[in-house]
Amino acid sequence: MNMPIKKDGAKELGKRILVVEDDPFLSDIYNTKLKQAGFAVELAMTGEECVNKLAAGEYDLMVLDIVLPQLDGWEILGRVGEMRQKNPESYINRLKIIILSNLGQKEEIKKGLDLGADGFMIKAHFTPSEVAAEIEKALKLPKAHGGD
To answer: How far is CA 144 from CA 30, 113, 116, in A?
Structure first.
């Protein structure tokens, strides 16, 4: 099946991605690369902004930094877990979460996955194009975690 081509050459915007990154430079790069890959992208610069957007919108995947102002990524994962328990019919139970962080110790990776993340990428190990490719792969896989 061919994707419709938009005037700017991008695929028809489909999957909605929320990028949670407080570094404006990185946020801009990921925004550009993901839009080039055909995703509809929204940005959140703080943990509070992320939680508000998750409550108000509907996303297919969230790219989540851990070190953030206000609420950090661990707290966001905890809030998502609470939202999943309270609203079993909500999109939040289908939301895929990829952590993209400079943290990379085994314990941190395990903690992220235990808290409901579907994947963990260390920023220094992936170019923005590789991040976009990993997101495409993740969206094709079934959701690993349920609402519990």
So the answer is: 24, 10, 9
